[in-house]
Amino acid sequence: MAIPGIRGLDHVGFTVPDLEQAHEFFVDVLGCEFFFELGPFESKGGTWLSEHVNVDDRARFRNRHYRLGNGSNFEIFEYELDGRNEQQPLNSDVGGFHLAFYVDDLDEAVDYLKSRGVKVLGEPTVSGGANEGQRWVYFLAPWGLQFEMVSYPDGKAYEAGRERLLWSPVHPQD
Q1: Fold (topology level) of 97-174
Q2: In this structure, which topology does domain 9-81 adopt according to CATH?
Q3: Which SUPFAM superfamilies does the entry mention (predicted)?
């Protein structure tokens, strides 16, 4: 059973420490298209934020909306709140996550990121098992958000003999 009428992922929302820095990174480095900004918003003594979006009611925030390539939408928040947690979680921490982007040429993409001063973690890694055929590498935003780039121009091992595949921006209609 699924949520009635569910079609798929609409956007990914996350919080950054500095919305201007994030804007520069997402637009000028990653190539996102900026669409609009909302806010600032605050509860003004009420409980709307805690009741509707699980946010401390003392917070004030604004957000911006972006699109990357043929489908990834991002809603990026900056909250103003004394005492907020400033530590970006590691992938191994509860709440830790990463965003993975497909690129056509992983080596070219790594060279580009390095030329822009982006911290790339290690060298591209060759996957095995069900992901054989894929290469990947992690990199960090200036504030520590974790990203991954993947490339599998000839497909992945798990795809052999399957009618339905994991969604990929290479073939978004499938």
Answers
A1: 2,3-Dihydroxybiphenyl 1,2-Dioxygenase; domain 1 (3.10.180)
A2: 2,3-Dihydroxybiphenyl 1,2-Dioxygenase; domain 1 (3.10.180)
A3: Glyoxalase/Bleomycin resistance protein/Dihydroxybiphenyl dioxygenase
Contacts of 8 (CB under 8 A, 6+ apart): 167
Nearest alpha carbon to residue 151 among 113, 119, 106, 115: 106
Q: Where are the alpha helices (DSSP H) in 30-85?
A: 48-53
Contacts of residue 20, defined as CB under 8 A and 6 or more positions apart, other chains included, come to none
Q: Is the distance from CB of 127 to CB of 136 less than 8 angstroms?
A: yes
- Give the pLDDT band of residue 140 (cuts 50, 70, 90): very high
* pTM: predicted TM-score of the whole model, two decimal places: 0.93
Q: List phi, psi (to 5°) of 32.
A: -70, 155
